[in-house]
Amino acid sequence: MADAKQLVTDLFKSNGILIPEHRMKLFDHFLQEEQNLAILYQLSKNQEQLMANWKTEERIAEILHQPIRIPNATVGKPYAAPFDFEQYGWNDLIAFRIEGLEALGLAYSAENNQITGVPTQSGDLEFSVYFKVEGQPEDAPFHQKDLLLIINPDPKSLWKNLESDKNDPYWKEDEVTLFSPLGDRHLLVSSKRGRSHANVGSFREDDFAFKELPNGWNVVVVSDGAGSAKLARKGSALACAGVVNYFQEPAAVESMAEFDDLVQQHASQTGEDTLKNLNHFVYNNLGKAAFQVHKQLESFAKAQDITLKDLSSTLIFTLFKKYDVGYALLSFGVGDCPIAVLSKDVTEVTLMNWIDVGEFGGGTRFITMPEIFQNEKFSTRFGFKLLDDFSYLFMMSDGIYDPKFVVEASLPDIAKWQEFLADLKGQNEDKAVVELSTTNPDIEAQLSRWMDFWSPGNHDDRTLAIVF
């Protein structure tokens, strides 16, 4: 009664009616009259309904203005993000539906409170939650809350693939992938123009060459032309061809034949002198090849009236031959391109060269630098190994080494090479598989696809040679 009396008192007061003290008994009697009691009851109910309606409107407004952040997505990449009504405090929703996700390639799962799918378009896009809250009648209209979902474009789609100038006198194909027998083994090799070059229509600077040589020898060469050198594409091509040509010259063929006796002596004696003789042979013969390549680049630069620096290129090459006692592998390397041999059971790795790297960059050396031939470390650029057998011989440019091994310290780690093999076998983001089998008819196409792997910040030319 007290609440009802106060309600009427406040109502009268708001209308300019004040109840004096001597009218209080009359006022009390007025409130007790049946017709007025009915009105008071309705007033009370209306007041309660009004308050309930306000709380409902306030709750709707609260949800509509509540900030909800949805994790960003990327076009073409599987997406799964929480969208949990309980977490947002939306337990009082009595009905809801979500619209607009299907057009983005996504869907909402009420079972696990997630938005999942593979986004099909990029941009600052919206989807909508339509809802009703407790207190609303069943036939009330749904309220719409728009939510922002930022879908980033596929990074690969941002790169252009402009053709290089085929009329350029030093033009070469943007990609070459080959599979070929090589001695008693097979070689799978691919060299691809990097995205940074394709984006501006410039040339592939990397190159490679290989050849079955007389007397059972085989040679594989990889060269990485320096991006800052205006004719590096020609420098790398000349360097690779120069190595192959050198080992086909009669004098080199005759000299390499002498290696057979040295191997037999070493296999039977395994003494210090025989190893010394072998290392001297490698230094002498491979050193002549490297120096001849340098002189050929020098002659070309002079004839074309350019600087030798314009042809700057790294150079690695490996010769291998099978003997009764195992495989002889000889190597030379200048620059930041590694050569590695994996044991037959892939439990050990043998590095055939060390790579030129600088603490702050710029540490790479090139076959065009005269000083490498006078440097006291020149003799350490050669490698010799006699192995019972091997599973894979890998040679690569830094376009492969940088994204896949990152740092030089990873190269002696067999676990990193096992990861690299697993990557080739399909354990990668693109599920790109290279089946390293001599009977695989799609092996070239598979490697070509694998070479397109995405690695943020690594968009240089890529060359990978695998002997298996």
From TrEMBL:
It comes from Hymenobacter gelipurpurascens. SUPFAM superfamilies: PP2C-like. Residues 193-427 form the PPM-type phosphatase domain. This is Protein phosphatase 2C. Signal peptide: none annotated. Coiled coil: none annotated. InterPro entries: PPM-type-like_dom_sf, PPM-type_phosphatase-like_dom.
